[in-house]
Amino acid sequence: MTKHDPRLDRLFHALSDPTRRGIVERLAHGPATVSELAEPTGMALPTVMRHIAVLAEGGLVRTEKAGRARLCHAVPDPMDAARDWMEAQRAIWIARLDRMEAHILKKDLEDD
């Protein structure tokens, strides 16, 4: 088993919720205030703030105070770790499936 990476746990947890994924997608277009992020969801500001806190714990969002508003920014770098992990897993499964296919083809040839 591979080494446990708590950063990946936090990242995947942050992305596990559709509301949080929506926030990340919105922030990909540029910074937004918490109010702007809450508006399309119909959620109360405290609920959206909790989602933003989870995204911040996952390293995907950073916030700053801008006057009376809280401005949120996307931080895309943590997604590199998720991409790298998924690509490594994909490579493992492709190799296994290729070996299985070769085995099946060999068995088919032997049976003929």
Automatic annotation (TrEMBL):
InterPro entries: ArsR-like_HTH, HTH_ArsR_DNA-bd_dom, WH-like_DNA-bd_sf, WH_DNA-bd_sf. Transmembrane segments: none annotated. This is ArsR family transcriptional regulator. It comes from the Bacteria. CDD domains: HTH_ARSR. NCBIfam families: HTH_metalloreg. Pfam families: HTH_20. Coiled coil: none annotated. One of its GO terms (molecular function) is DNA-binding transcription factor activity. SUPFAM superfamilies: Winged helix' DNA-binding domain. SMART domains: HTH_ARSR. Residues 1-103 form the HTH arsR-type domain.
